[in-house]
Amino acid sequence: MKNVERPETQACLLAHLSGGKCCALVGLSNTGKSALLRSLCMQEPLPAPLRDTFPVYVDCNRMLELSQQGFYEAILRAVRSRARDRSLEPDLLARLETAYETVVHPASSLSIPLGFNDAMEGLCEARLRPVLVLDEFDEPFQALEGRIFLNLRALRDRYRERLLYVTATARTLEELRDDIETAEFRELFVGQVCRLGMLEEGSARATIAALANEEGVPLDSGEVEFIVRASGGHLGLIHGVFRLLLRARREAPQTYGRMGVRLVEEALAGDGAVCGECERLWAQLTPTERRALLALTRGEQLPLEEQEQLRRLGLVAQEGAVFSDAFAGFVRRFRREGAARPMGLWLDEDAGEVYVDGRRVPTLTELEYRLLQTLYRRMGKLCDKYLLVEEVWGESYIDEVDDARIEKLISRLRAKIEEDPANPRYLITVRGRGYRLVGRPDDELPGTVNVV
Question: What is the C-alpha separation between 254 and 267, in angstroms, rounded?
């Protein structure tokens, strides 16, 4: 996605980093977090507050597996690449290479964190002041073992301002995970959160103008106004609506000449790119936030607290309307379609989609989907931990996956399918025996207890 300057947010990040503090960037999907952070790390020369640092951009989506080894490997892979670009001292490059090989080919499980720590110690002791910029950090932070984050905190405590972390997530770290295992890591970011919302109207217009110039297709004022209104300043939606408008102009010139942007407006609901952006936004919302948006599209007055939360997320404009015509239409369609779907939980295995009480649940990770699929195919039946490990992780993991790891995966799945994960209605624990999935709350069988 084309980079867009976000001077206020960049200034917020730089102010914290220049003071030797870790900081967090928070914003919903495709609002421009990744582009901003890449620019911050890669621009030459670096911004003044970062001149004496060694910023490393880490895309957590490039983790080869969701594990301690996968996490450390992704970071060190990015560190190696950055070190080569910066032509660091040969001895330090060799040390980083050795550390990387230790993580990739460990002699034991202890070798993995030791190899990672050795690389970080080498950078810090060389006075490079590494800044680890952890983008797409949501899933690793929610899923990985707490000791990983204790280790990051311990390194920070040891080297202080010589080691900095920047995280980029859709929600604050406290919203993603609020447990004792990550408390000390989360403390590093208290008071240092920079929020990234939708583009202001002027920036949205500038972005649209840049896209039009890039494509060599002038837009009239009505077309620009339509894209601004339909996208609400959301970068992903700006791109989606702009591409749809160009396609309408090229593929149906006569109809477009007659109907203008009304043709594009009518096509928004069926466009894959536009709907995909709306679905990604919807998937990141809590049940309460979804209900508030549904109520808003029915013309209901929201409580002040719910209005403020939607504004913080950038989903509601100051005048109280949904920020984007395209997203408002998506919410209205969701409301109508949801009313037509049966209550309860059901899995559409062909489409890979899950619905609970008529709402589509957020996208599941591969392990979460396999877990739900296993339970769904045995609806109402008890599934013990051995069956779950064999079906979800594979038979070779029987001796490696302990109860705590299973429980964490259960908790992550509950967070997506249950309105109140602490009091589950569908994914039921049978104490001391395993888990059972029920299609509707009134299908629950005797002998079950709702505990996490």
Answer: 16
pLDDT over 70 at 413, yes or no: yes
Better-scored residue on pLDDT, 143 or 78: 78
CA-to-CA distance for 112 and 395, rounded, in angstroms? 24
Q: Supply the DSSP string of 329-369, one letter for each residue.
A: HHHHHHHHHHHHSPSSEEEETTTTEEEETTEEPPPPPHHHH
Hey, is 381 helix, strand or coil?
Answer: coil
Are 1 and 32 within 8 A, CB to CB?
A: yes
Alpha helices (runs of H) in 126-179, residue ranges in sequence order: 138-143, 146-159, 173-176
Helix (H), strand (E), coil (C) string for 192-221: CEEECCCCCHHHHHHHHHHHHHHHCCCCCH
109 burial via Cβ count (<10 Å: 0-12, 13-18, 19+): exposed
Average pLDDT over every residue of 101-126: 95
Q: 3-state SS string over 266-289?
A: HHHHHCHHHHHHHHHHHHCCCHHH
- Give pLDDT, residue 432: 83
The strand order across the sheet containing 130-135 reads 54-59, 130-135, 164-169, 23-26, 193-195
Nearest to 386 by CA among 369, 406, 366: 406
The least confident of 92-101, 188-197, 269-278, 440-449 is 440-449
Give the pLDDT confidence of 264-294 residue by residue, as tens digits: 999 998 898 998 899 889 878 887 888 899 9
Token match 């429980």: residue? 407
Between the alpha carbon of residue 80 and those of residues 97, 120, 200, 348, 351, the distances in Å are: 7, 11, 38, 43, 39
Interval 244-261: pLDDT, tens: 999 999 999 999 999 999
Q: How far is CA 81 from CA 91, 121, 425, in A?
A: 16, 17, 47
Distance between the two ends of the chain, CA-based, in angstroms? Answer: 40
How many CB atoms within 10 Å of residue 224? 17
CB neighbourhood size of 96 (10 A):
22
**Exposure string for 405-441, b = 16+ CB within 10 A, e = fewer:** bbeebbbbbbbbbbeebeebbbbbbbeeebbbbbbee
> Which has the minimum average pLDDT: 15-24, 169-178, 266-275, 352-361?
352-361
pLDDT of residue 341: 60
Closest CA to 372 of 426, 419, 443: 426
**Alpha-carbon distance values, 441 to 7, 215, 418 (Å):** 49, 53, 11
